[in-house]
């Protein structure tokens, strides 16, 4: 029974790591979309005022702020990519541990029930005793 609890824990860990990866991937997608939206808004502002030089005194304040937010989002995406790689490595490790635990359980079950999957009787191997097999006298 103790090994069953370990298997459940390993499966939980794998599922938790998969969820973490899905969450990070969703955040990356959202941040990229927001950065693209800001790119569009920056272009609209630049087109409206006719100034593309960020250092120009009349460059729109909104566009400057949008550039800063967009750059922050892109920086966050880079950080999330690193976290995603780490989370993927952790998932790989957790999957490997789960496989090892499953193999250990299979071996334990095979040892408990013999190679044929049937519990071994203390009389197994003794001819005709307790197996319903006629003796070799025939």
Quick summary of this structure?
By secondary structure, the protein is mainly α.
Structural features, described:
With 138 residues, the protein is mainly alpha-helical. The protein has a domain at 2-96: Orthogonal Bundle (Helix Hairpins), CATH 1.10.287. Helix content is 73%, strand content 0%. The protein contains two helices and no strands. Helix 1 (2-49) runs antiparallel to helix 2 (61-113). The longest helix has 53 residues, at 61-113. The two termini are 46 Å apart.
By CATH reckoning, the class of one domain would read Mainly Alpha
User: What is the strand tally?
Assistant: 0
CATH topology of one domain, which one?
Answer: Helix Hairpins
Q: What is the makeup of the main sheet? A: none
Count of individual helical segments: 2
Mean pLDDT value:
86
Level-2 CATH architecture of one domain: Orthogonal Bundle
Q: What is the structural class?
A: mainly alpha
Helix content: over 70%
Order of helices and strands: HH
What spatial form do the alpha-carbon principal axes imply? rod-shaped
Integer-rounded radius of gyration: 32 Å
Strand content: under 5%
Low-confidence regions: 121-126, 128-138
Distance linking N and C termini: 46 Å
Name the descriptors.
mainly alpha, disordered C terminus, 138 residues, Helix Hairpins, 2 helices, rod-shaped, single chain
Compile the SSE list and pairings.
Blueprint: H1 2-49, H2 61-113
Helix pairs in contact: 1-2
